[in-house]
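Late entry, written up from scratch paper. The run itself happened at the end of the previous shift, but nothing got recorded in the book at the time, so transcribing now.
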Amino acid sequence: MKTLRLYIHIPYCRRRCPYCDFPTYADPNPDWDALFAALQNELSLQVARWALQGRKVRSIFFGGGTPSLAPPEKIGALLEHIAALLRLDARAEITLEANPESASLLRLREMRAAGVNRLSLGVQSLTDKGLSVLGRLHDAAQARRAYEAARRAGFAQINLDFIYGWPGQTLANWARELREAVRMAPDHLSCYELTIEPATPFAKRGIRAADEELALAMWQHADAFLCAHGYEHYEISNYARAGARARHNEGYWRYEDYLGIGPGAASKLDGESGAVWRWRNERHLARYLQALRNATLAVAETERLAPDEAAREALWLALRRREGARGAPFVRRFGLAPATLARRHLPQAVACGLLLTDAQGGVRASKQGMLLLDTLAAKLFG
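Output as recorded:
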């Protein structure tokens, strides 16, 4: 029986960040009863629709939004509902995203007691200037206190999220932040380049992120510095201590099955004969809630990928990881080697040092190739 990953989208925030394009809502008084009733109803409907009973759940990720705003008893009740419908692995990684301003010691202890065993803390910057530019509600001191509270609350696995390349940030600023982050000794760090998405407040205000040359220098410095201090660079933006990789996200990159619950959440399940089903929920919160009140799935779009399309998508995701796509497992799953699938422009990419191959037909991206992956994928599969 294949395993399953679960993503649970909690859409509420105290304030929407100006760079965010996720389906989130700033609401001072969320209707938590309505939201969690809808989440439970959707999970039950999806399990029945796709005959997922008996699937073992290897990881659960509460994302958002700001899941740390949710009542811990609601999180616990939803975990119990999951365990009643599916087979929740006793060693499942259960991650909750938290913002520092909503991560008090009491709240974190309650989340830990509810069953959460991994915390992803949205620090984003360890400077007050950076946090102000990014429109965050917390300051640097709150971020440090939230991390200390998480350790005191019993979290043995903590990720710190950072955004680099914000307007006015220098390479020296970024280097100082990384030095402090390493002194804090988190188990995992995610370092994302600021991207200005269309229709966000940043885009409407004409805000510009760091230029390409500076952003590249920041990525290269983070990579060299974190690797020199005991962190494994295992995916384009992610670094982990030994044994502390984000198992949930690795499920995405390995093209495993996942079920997304909540407004705007995405799902992927293997279909028949190598095909793949993907769908995304309705983003609009009111329409999502109304559909579930009527015991109807709030699916906005669905697509079926043919086997060759699924294989290309799986290869693109694999190239995000340091290991890339290994020949024998890929052949067993898709019937052809990664090097064969990418043969159109593979020799040129190898000659340029962007891709590396092995004798078993495996393919992986070099450090430089990771940076150019979107452009590279368009060449390989376009």
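The chain has a mean pLDDT of 95.
(Scratch paper discarded after transcription.)
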